[in-house]
Every structure is written in C-alpha cells, then in structure tokens.
Design goal:
By secondary structure, the chain is an alpha/beta fold. The protein has four domains: 212 residues, Growth Hormone, Chain: A, CATH 1.20.1250; 252 residues, Growth Hormone, Chain: A (Up-down Bundle), CATH 1.20.1250; 257 residues, Rossmann fold (3-Layer(aba) Sandwich); 115 residues, Serine Threonine Protein Phosphatase 5, Tetratricopeptide repeat (Alpha Horseshoe), CATH 1.25.40.10. The chain has 35 helices and twelve strands. Strands 7-6-5-8-9-11-10-12 form an eight-stranded mixed β-sheet. Strands 1-2-3-4 form a four-stranded antiparallel β-sheet. Helix 7 runs antiparallel to helix 8. The chain is elongated, with a radius of gyration of 32 Å. The termini are far apart. About 1% of the residues have low confidence.
C-alpha cells in the first residue's frame, strides 16, 4: 500500500473509531437529558442519522467541485473534535432551555417531549453533518481512473467500519468504565484531531491523490433505470437493515441479558459483519463491473442467512448454558456474549457489508464523481435507515413482535432481491426465474414456526447458575416445560411476560423476574407501607415503576389524595392486570394515574411536589437503570419532595458486590443525609431517606395502622401481625448507615460505575456477605423513637411483633434479642418462648432452644410447635430418646403437618441430620 494511501486510511480508521465512540457516549449523555424511553432514544438516533444523511449528500456534492477534498476532510475532522469538546459542558444549558420553553409555552409532558426532540436535532445536526461528509470526500480524494470504485470504496468503507469496531470495543470495555463520559469524549476528539493532522499533512504535500478524468458514472448520464433503482434499493436496504438490527438486538437481549456489556457485544457483532463484508467484496469482487442483479444476489444472501438464523435461534439458549458451564468469570462471560452475538448476527451483516460497495460499483463504476456517488448512495441508505428505526422500534416490534418483525424484514429483503433481478440485464427468462424464486421464498417465510415463549422468557444467561444446577445437562426446554405463559408481549422497550410456575405468578421483563407473588411480595408491599406509615401525613405519592402493581396497590390502601405511577413500558401496565387479586385492581382507583414515560425525565418536567417518592427499579446492572441510582437523580428527587418528604429506594443485596452496595448507600446519602436501611425480605434492602433527621413517632404509626383495615390485612397476610412488626424490618439507623458509607465511591451521571461494575457480580453469591457487612454496622435494635412513643416498645406485644419482623427478614439474632426482652417482661409469654426457640435453632444453639421450648411447654396445653422444636433441639444435643418422644407427641397433635410428619419419618429411619 502506498504511503499516502496508508496515511489516509489511518485517518479514516481513527475517524470511524471516534464516530462510534460519539454515538455511544452522546446517546448516554442525551438519554440523561431527554430520558431513556424508546421515543426519546429513537428521536436522538434519528437526529444522529439525519445529520449523517444530510452530511453525506452535501459531502458528495462538495467532493466533485473541491480542488482538495482531503484538505476539506481534515478541517471537517477538526470541526467534529471542537464540537465534541464543547457539547458536554453545554448539556446543562440545554436542559435549562427546554424547561424555560416548557414554562413559557405552558406545555404538557407530551408537548415538552416534542420540544426535546427538536432540541436533539439542533444539538446533533452540526457534528453529524460533518461526520456524514467525510467518507464521500475521502472516496473522491482517493479515486483513480484505473481502479473500479467498488474495490476502492469497499476498502475505505471496511477501514472506516473496522475503526468503528475498535471504537465500540474501546468505549464499552476500556474507556467508559474507568474514565466516564467526558474523558472518553476527550480521547475521541483526540482521534479526530489526529485524523485531521494526518490528512492535512498529505493534502499540503500535494501528493498525487487527485482523480483522473474518466467517463461519467451511469448514475449521472448513463442508464436512467440504474440511476433511480440503485439509490432506491439502498434506501430499502437501509430500512430493512435497521429493522433487522433492532429486532435481533431485542431477541439477543432476551438470551444474554440487558447489561451494557451484552449490548456492546451485539453492536460489535453487527459492525464486525459489516466490516468483513465490505472488505471481502473489495478483495474478491471489487474490480468487476456489476449491475442490479449482483446487488440482488447480495440481498438474497441477506434474506436467506437471516431466515437460517431465525429458524435456528432457539438453539442459542443451550449454547449459552454450555459455554457458561465452563466458567462465569467476567472475561469469559464477555467473550461468550461476543461469540453468541457474532454467531447470530455476523452471517447476516456480512452480506449487508458487501451491499454498499456493490451499489457504488453498479451506480458509479469509477472516476471523477465517485465521491458524489458515495454521498448520494450513503444518504439514500441512511435515509432508509431512519425509516427503519421509526418503523422497527415504534411500529413493527410493538405490533407484530420480534419474531414477526424479523419475518417481515426477511420477506422484504427477498422481494428487493427479486426486484433487482427483474431490473438487471439479460433475457427475460434469465431475469424472471431468480425473481420468481425470490418471491416464492419471501412468501414461504410466513411459515417459519414461532419461538417457544417459555424459552424466550427464560433468561438463560441471567439465571445460568440456577439452570446449570437444576439441569444436569438437560436441554433448557425441558427445564421450563412446566411454566405456563399467561401473557407475552414484545413492547417498545422490552419483552414482558407473566408466567405461572408452581402456583406462583411471576412478571418477567426481558426474561428477568421483576416481581412475584411469593418471594418478592413482602418487598413490593412494604415499599409502600414503610414510607407512608412513617411520614407524618402523606397526601401525594410518586412511584417509579409499575411492576406487578402491588406497590401502587399498597399505597392506595392509605388515605392519600393522589398516586402517580410512571412506567416506561406500556406492556407492563397490561401485564399488571394479571396481579389484580394482589393489588386490588388499583388502576381503577380514581386517585391512581399511570403515565408512560421515563421516570427521571418526568420528574424533571413535573411541577408537582410529592410527600413520598418510591423508586422500585432495583437492578443497577441493567443498562440504563444505573442512571436511576446516580447522585444527580437522587438530588432531582429531593427537589420534587415537599418539606418533610420521604424517598424510598429498593436495592438488592444479591448479585451486587459489597463495594457497590456501599456506593448506592453513599450516593443516596448525598441527597438524603438522614438515611435508614430496612429489609422486608432477606436480600432486599429499602433505603428510607429524609433531608433532616426526624425521630419516628410510634404512637402516630400505631394510630395510622389501626385506622386502616386494609393495611392491617396486608400485615396479617405477610405474617407480621401488629404494627410493631414494621420495626422488626429495621436494620440500620442514620448514624450506622453513615458509617457504612464511609470511603465508598459515588455513582455520578458522568461515570456511572454501577452500570459497568454491577454486571461483574451477576454470577457471584453476594447476598450473604452483603447482609453480614450491613449487620456489622448495626448498633441499635430499633429506629430512633420520639421520647413520648419510646415506652410503647416496652410493651410485650409490640416487642414480640418486632421480633416476628426480624424473623421475617431472616435475622434470628435480632429476633432473639426482642423475644428475650418479651420474656423478661412476661416469663409466661408462650408465643415468645416458641419464637425464641426457633431463633436459637436458626443460630445453631440447640441448648438454649431446648430451654425456650420447655418454657413454652411448662403451661398446658402443650403447643405442637414447642414439642416439635424441643424434639429437634434434643436431637441436635444427642438426646435421641427425648427427641423421639417430643416428635411423636407433636405429630400426634397435628397429624396433617407435613414438616412434623417428614421429620419424624427421618428420625425413625436414622436419616435426620443435625
């Protein structure tokens, strides 16, 4: 390769790398401004692509008239770098402008969203116009009269796309995680400046890169049929390609999960295929003269390969499990995600990558107007891609589903193949037969079988450890065979399913269980009761995330005036109706209003102040959700609270490294210094935040609880009994939470370390160490109470229910302390003695457990539970005869108790373990 060509190719490689970095980072940054709802992200993407299309068209026109296309290219790269450096500091001003326009025009949330779309276009058009103009200018600069344009343009397109592959890889794995958005943009701007310097050096030397005059391209003065057909075909191809990309990405996210690394792997797979396809075409066929039929062959390759992948897609779950059986260390998981994405997408995108250089060769074979041809075809292709983004994301997938959208895209590609054959050269028979075959194949796509919804909603990568433990090498299809899928919808932003498994209902979003009617139910219900019962007089409530609707239902059981629920995915609202028996058909309550949109964006736009804000998303490892755990989001929520308001944040302790759990607490405390930590279900923490410290008035809590029969019913359903059961969920007070957060990092909008760090713990068992870490900071059994209400906790019934609450969250040590206090107040309190025996046994202390059980048996009649606990305790102490007597008596009193019966059977057979 001549030195000038190598230098310019290096510049184009750097340009491609920087361009993908910008696309990734700008989508992240503008998502924080305009929201992460599909409408907002689609608007940003359309704005980005509109600039590319306009820029390529303008660049093509400019290239044919410019004396030094390479010099212009260099200045464009410098302009991109300057704009990129100015954009991040200007985003806060953009937010202020949008809010000013909203207030001045009196816009609704929907109207304000349209203003944001317009602003997105204004912000992204300048740099993307410059980006779009680069390839036509370089193509023109390197055009030569003796070389076919397909080869040269294909090579340039491949170099530029390999740069994009490098930029994606660098941004997703090496730059954004440690450096954040701003520094990553600085590095990308440096790449643009380096590209500008390289190009300018060659341009100023006057190295012979200028085109030689040759015959005009057919697209200019040749065949009028080719002149319109090839651009039209590239437009259709661009639209279909985006439908493919959207649908395949959605399908793969069901299998690989929704982490930022999984999405990076999918983008890499698409770009690798495009780069390889253009490179292979340039190498093998770039010198050949081609026509529409050749482009038709390529489109046929796209359609047929996509059909093969679609038909075999349901084999990927077992492939994923087989790969993760080898290891679940992060580097291996990353490699598995990339390999699975490549196996699913690259065969299709390889053909797509060949389409662009082939179209250039057919439309502008060689010569002085190659740059203009590149510009026009790239503009046509990108314009089609804009239509594909709008159709695929907003119409096809929500209406026809992922599988249906893919079938439509395959059929459209095959019909395009047929149309190109018909327009090609040769005899009528030679053109008609391939066209008829393509049409027949397009029609046959309708008969491809649908996917098994149980398999597609199983999240094989997310729950790989569970499936591998249960499967013993069995196919995943067998493991999920007993699931009954009651609801399945491919929504705008995710796939939502409701399944019945073993008598339980589960809500799954992209395969991951988001809510359930057994394990998750206490957390969902107490996420509402905790802040509403501890607030002095709540009237307005904001809930981020509908989920199953149980939190909204619990909030509506209080005498509040208004409950606003914000949900990003409409299909979740539909799915919540399957849980109406648990949430009381809450959406029929006139006080409850459900809105579709981005929660952060909604709060930013809202002028409503709330007494209580509840944020339910609890998985910061999922792409986009880490922004709901950032300092900036928590500060925004604080601004939307009335004086004395309360915010609650649900955060999981499982699959989250201890340093990241501490980071969540530390970041939350930036906005709410008075933070306490509660735990309604083992492994699920609720952060309760206030700006100022306010001791809890237990008297008001009791009065509110007693005044609401439906709230009391929830407590009884959860086995928490009296109002004091709520205090048993208390883990850390304000001072203890502050000590927990010491030395922890912060999750900020610029870096979002949770988004990149949390997925690394997805396959780790972190619940036990996290709970132990949190418990190590515990210095108080109860939250700070007002002096007037503190004596209530010296009443035996209240202490007892606090202990029951501790048992509910699997903290036997804290529970035992409460039960011992009850027995100090009343040594004859039989329920406390039984519960103390249970707690002692859970702590592995059979001797005191036996003592507590005997205290419960001291007064007749003998409770069966006390007999059972005494029997188990005696067995642990090696007193077989005494244990047998207790167990026999317990089973005789309750012959229908399965646990009693099974324990006695194992005792008799000598298989009862200690």
């Amino acid at each position: 390769m001549p030195v000038p060509l190598l230098v310019v190719s290096s510049a184009l490689f750097l340009s491609g790398a920087a361009g993908l970095v910008y696309q990734v980072v700008w989508l992240r940054m503008l998502g924080l401004v305009f929201g992460h709802a599909v409408d907002a992200l689609t608007a940003v993407l359309v704005a980005f692509m509109s600039g590319l299309a306009l820029g390529s068209a303008l660049g093509g026109r400019l290239s044919s008239r410019a004396r030094s296309p390479l010099a212009i290219y260099a200045w464009l790269e410098a302009g991109i770098a300057v704009y990129a450096l100015c954009l991040p500091p200007g985003l806060p001003a953009l937010t202020r402008v949008s809010l000013t326009l909203r207030d001045a025009l009196g816009l609704s949330y929907e109207g304000w969203s349209l203003v944001q779309v317009a602003l997105a276009f204004l912000v992204l058009l300048p740099p993307t116009v410059l980006m779009g103009a680069t390839l036509p200018l370089v193509s023109q600069a390197l055009a030569s009269g003796g070389e076919a344009s397909g080869r040269r343009v294909g090579a340039l397109y491949a170099v530029n796309t390999w740069g994009a592959v490098t930029g994606t890889l660098a941004a997703g794995y090496f730059l954004l995680p440690p450096l954040g958005n701003r520094v990553t943009v600085w590095i990308a701007a440096g790449a643009n400046l380096a590209a500008a310097a390289l190009a300018l050096t060659i341009a100023r030397r006057g190295t012979a890169l200028a085109p030689q005059p040759v015959l005009s391209a057919p697209g200019e003065e040749g065949s009028s049929r080719v002149a319109w057909l090839i651009p039209a075909a590239m437009a259709v191809s661009g639209a279909v390609a985006m439908v493919f990309e959207i649908a395949w990405t959605r399908a793969l996210s069901l299998l690989l999960g929704s982490s930022t690394y999984a999405f990076t792997a999918m983008v890499l797979a698409v770009l690798i295929g495009l780069a390889m396809g253009s490179a292979v075409y340039a190498w093998r066929w770039g010198n050949r003269r081609v026509g529409p039929a050749t482009l038709g062959v390529i489109q046929g390759g796209v359609g047929l390969s996509a059909a093969v992948v679609l038909a075999s897609f349901d084999r990927l779950p077992d492939l994923i499990l087989a790969a993760l059986r080898v290891s679940t260390v992060p580097s291996w998981v990353d490699l598995v995600e990339i390999l699975v994405s490549v196996s699913a997408l690259t065969m299709v995108t390889l053909w797509m990558g060949a389409a662009f250089p082939c179209a250039i060769a057919a439309w502008a074979p060689a010569g002085a107007r190659v740059g203009r041809g590149v510009g026009r075809l790239y503009a046509a292709n990108t314009a089609g891609a804009i239509v594909g983004v709008l159709l695929g994301g907003l119409v096809l997938v929500p209406t026809w589903g992922i599988h249906g959208s893919l079938k439509m895209a395959i059929a459209a590609t095959l019909m395009l193949c047929g149309a190109l054959f018909v327009a090609g050269s040769g005899s009528t028979m030679r053109r008609s037969l391939p066209a008829a075959a393509a049409l027949a194949l397009a029609l046959s796509v309708a008969f491809l079988p649908d996917w098994d919804t149980r398999l597609m909603s199983s999240a094989p990568a997310v729950y790989a450890r569970s499936y591998l433990r249960a499967g013993a090498g069995r196919p995943l299809r067998e493991l999920v065979r007993d699931q009954e899928v009651l609801f399945y919808r491919d929504g705008r932003s995710g796939t939502v399913a409701v399944s019945r498994e073993g008598g339980q209902l589960f809500l799954r979003i992209n395969g991951k269980i988001d809510a359930g009617t057994v394990v998750d139910m206490p957390t969902q219900i107490m996420a509402a009761h905790l802040p509403l019962l501890t607030h002095p007089a709540p009237r307005t409530v904001f809930i981020l995330g509908m989920g199953s609707g149980m939190t909204a239902g619990a909030a509506a059981r209080h005498p509040v005036e208004r409950v606003d629920v914000l949900e990003i995915e409409p299909a979740v609202i539909e799915a919540s109706r399957f849980f109406r028996d648990f949430h009381g058909d809450v959406l029929r309550d006139p006080r409850v209003r459900a809105t579709i949109g981005d929660g952060r964006n909604f709060l930013q736009a809202s002028s409503t102040a709330y007494d209580v804000i509840i944020s339910e998303p609890s998985n910061p490892w999922m792409s986009g959700l880490a922004a709901l755990f950032s300092r900036e989001f928590f500060l925004l929520a604080r601004e939307r609270l009335r004086p004395g308001g309360v915010m609650l944040q649900w955060v999981q302790s499982y699959n989250l490294a201890p340093e990241h759990l501490k980071m969540v607490v530390a970041t939350f405390r930036e906005a709410f210094p008075a933070t306490s930590i509660w735990e309604p279900t083992p492994g699920d923490f609720l952060l309760l935040g206030r700006v100022d410290r306010v001791p809890l008035d237990a008297r008001r809590l009791r009065e509110r609880w007693e005044a609401e029969p439906r709230v009391r019913a929830d407590f009884e359903r959860l086995g928490m009994g009296g109002w004091a059961g709520l205090l048993g969920l208390f883990v850390l007070g304000e001072d203890d939470a502050a000590r927990l957060a010491v030395g922890a990092g912060l999750n900020t909008d610029d870096r979002l370390p949770l988004e990149f760090g949390a997925p690394r713990a997805l396959y780790l068992e972190t619940s036990v160490p996290n709970r132990a870490m949190v418990a190590s900071f515990r210095s108080a059994d109860l939250p700070a109470l007002t002096p007037e209400s503190a004596p209530l906790m010296d009443q035996r019934a209240n202490r007892y229910w606090a202990g029951v609450g501790c048992l509910r969250r699997a903290d036997p040590a804290a529970a035992l302390a409460h039960f011992e206090r009850v027995l100090q107040l009343d040594p004859t309190h039989t329920p406390a003695a039984i519960a103390a025996a249970m707690a002692a046994l859970q702590l592995g202390r059979p001797a005191p457990a036996l003592d507590f059980a005997r205290r419960a048996l001291a007064r007749p009649p003998a409770p069966p539970a006390a007999l059972f606990l005494a029997g188990v305790s005696a067995w642990w102490l090696g007193r077989g005869e005494e244990a047998g007597s207790y167990l026999e008596r317990a089973s005789a009193l309750e012959p229908g108790n399965a646990e009693f019966r099974e324990t006695l059977r194992r005792f008799r057979s000598g298989t009862l373990s200690r």
